């Protein structure tokens, strides 16, 4: 047994490894949830209508698959057969009408199947046959009118069956379908068209929760013991259902019975069924005035922990209303009635053990002053939510001094008396949010020494005065968000010795007071300042967080009206423990290289919509963020994905780059970010040309990185084309064609040369001597011309670099008495361009090539550097100078063989960029070296000159040598040739 388990584990491990190596890590319609280890997938709002196309490329290791809000109408057979590990399959909110009988084959491990919110009207009896381990089946919100009696026959492990909101009418047929489901615990048939519970079979003994609300039940019509095992029964909103239907019914196991909005009499129900009153929800049974008094009298002999009386139109609560009731120990819920006043809760003076009172959704307008004559010492929780309370008077809660939880939120409280909360020393949670409070005072919370959570969100507070919270030494959470706060007084936060979370979002603060927040440095972990009016005008602002070394979460999103705009230098200094930073929607002009230097513990950073135009992220901006796991830079105008900016993010797992200006990605950098598992590039203008051919191959063949929705990324420069499959064959040399051409040519030559030798021997010999004579004369003419050069240097450059040539090169060289040859100025009009280039190269002592990316892409620049290199290698003269305007990787020079050959023999000059520590000195050194190189002679030493003369004499003596030997001599570069080295 152990050996088989080991073998299975080994096979799985090998399979996963092969999977990573063999499959592309991108999906046509789905995304894998980051860090789910190839197990959780979401396919939401896809454009495909074919389910097999949507899930066809999902990994076989998937355990959770959600396919929602699509246009699927049909599920084919074997649609998920390649996903044998699925345990949860969600197909809700589609347009599914039909499902093939074999659609769910090979899903033996499936436990949850959700088919709700579709248009299914029929299910084949065999459709669930393979789902032996299914525990949850959700078929709600469909068009089912009937169920085949064998539909669920193989679902022996089914626990939950949801059939709510269909068109089912025959309850007996439904019972026959489930009678053999020995594991069924919950059945939901709410919102159907059932008229009775007549049956020919029995419910499974395991069924404990049965929901039948919102049907057309007018009678039950079931066997007296039919529901004896059910513990939760919901029959609410069956308006025709009467008390007689329950006569003699066995409900001894019921733990919760809901009969809201039926025609059932509570008193008769208790008489007919002998059910325990503590398990009945008395909501919506028209219990008011006499009916409520009568019910209480009926319950007097019982022990009740919970009394739910919602939606009974109760308007007045008299002092003795509940005196005849049983002693309620835990909860009394009077919500959704018509109560206008509770007085001082005198109606509870007989209920001295009640712990929780809910009077929500009523018509209360005022909480009045209360004395201590009626003490409810057992009361712990009190809720007045969703009323119309305008005023809370002083000592309003004097009769409930032991409250730990008080909810006054979602009212219209405009006045809270100074002494309203007096005496609540045990209060732990106070909710005053969503009211109209304009002021809170220094003694408003004076007695709340045990308070841990204070919620004042969405009021009308504008100023937080000194010492308002001075007695709240145990407060952990303070929520002041959604007010109109413009100022916090210097001592506003005094006394908050243990505050961990402070919410000040959506206020009108214009600055972050470091002195004020610094008082919380020892405990504060969360600071929310979203959507305030914080704005800076200078980069040299003192960091407001300098002492907040315990802060873990900082939110500064969306400052109004137009963002922070200018982020000061070292703004986040001191936040050494920060884990999450939110800066979205701030339109920041620029980020300094040291902006995030102190955030060495940061794991989550979002900068979405935080730049203006094209973002120029400075090199090293993320240099200390080695623990960063998620970086979101959506719509920041980032133009390049460079190692200088992103290279230090070695711990990064998720990178969101969607809606930026990048046309390509540096795949070598992606390879270095070894922990990266998710890269989002949606809506980036990726170009579909040879520049991105390597990126295309890399993304499609990635072993570890997921590129969500890669197959939907279109080509910006080729409308109608997609990035994943644009043609790249023109970008690479076809090696097969190359070998065929070369071998074919070689074979033909071997065949023809003997024939031509025999037939045309004398013609070849004559032509050879004529060519030799012509070449020798041309050679001598060029050698003579060297002695009378017209220019000191010919400048080879691309028009894109013309500004640098005209503004930098020309003034510095011609200002030093050098004569330069330029295209637009010195080329002979009407002469062929190639002739002009040749004349310029050979009539200049040297050739200066101004190399840049644009230079390498120009055909004419390529010709010029080739001609200059011919002269360098053939004449053995130091005539070529290389000036690089920008750093260019060696791999981009791979196609320029002669340039690489020159660079191996010579160093080159690099134009100093703006990132130099002393650019002026660097530029001065650059010009000095270039001028020195121009002044150097093309001729070597006397020994070198003698050697050349001897070689010339040898060439003249060997008049009868064949052409191949002479060409070899001309093209061969002497090994010991001296080369002038330019210092970089």
TrEMBL record:
<keyword id="KW-0433">Leucine-rich repeat</keyword>
<protein>
    <recommendedName>
        <fullName>TIR domain-containing protein</fullName>
    </recommendedName>
</protein>
<dbReference type="GO" id="GO:0006954">
    <property type="term" value="P:inflammatory response"/>
</dbReference>
<dbReference type="InterPro" id="IPR032675">
    <property type="entry name" value="LRR_dom_sf"/>
</dbReference>
<dbReference type="InterPro" id="IPR000157">
    <property type="entry name" value="TIR_dom"/>
</dbReference>
<keyword id="KW-0732">Signal</keyword>
<keyword id="KW-0675">Receptor</keyword>
<feature type="region of interest" description="Disordered">
    <location>
        <begin position="936"/>
        <end position="984"/>
    </location>
</feature>
<dbReference type="InterPro" id="IPR001611">
    <property type="entry name" value="Leu-rich_rpt"/>
</dbReference>
<dbReference type="InterPro" id="IPR003591">
    <property type="entry name" value="Leu-rich_rpt_typical-subtyp"/>
</dbReference>
<keyword id="KW-0399">Innate immunity</keyword>
<dbReference type="Pfam" id="PF01582">
    <property type="entry name" value="TIR"/>
</dbReference>
<feature type="transmembrane region" description="Helical">
    <location>
        <begin position="735"/>
        <end position="758"/>
    </location>
</feature>
<dbReference type="GO" id="GO:0016020">
    <property type="term" value="C:membrane"/>
</dbReference>
<dbReference type="InterPro" id="IPR035897">
    <property type="entry name" value="Toll_tir_struct_dom_sf"/>
</dbReference>
<dbReference type="GO" id="GO:0045087">
    <property type="term" value="P:innate immune response"/>
</dbReference>
<feature type="compositionally biased region" description="Basic and acidic residues">
    <location>
        <begin position="943"/>
        <end position="968"/>
    </location>
</feature>
<keyword id="KW-0325">Glycoprotein</keyword>
<keyword id="KW-1133">Transmembrane helix</keyword>
<dbReference type="Pfam" id="PF13855">
    <property type="entry name" value="LRR_8"/>
</dbReference>
<keyword id="KW-0812">Transmembrane</keyword>
<comment type="similarity">
    <text>Belongs to the Toll-like receptor family.</text>
</comment>
<keyword id="KW-0677">Repeat</keyword>
<keyword id="KW-0395">Inflammatory response</keyword>
<keyword id="KW-0391">Immunity</keyword>
<feature type="compositionally biased region" description="Acidic residues">
    <location>
        <begin position="975"/>
        <end position="984"/>
    </location>
</feature>
<keyword id="KW-0472">Membrane</keyword>
<feature type="domain" description="TIR">
    <location>
        <begin position="789"/>
        <end position="934"/>
    </location>
</feature>
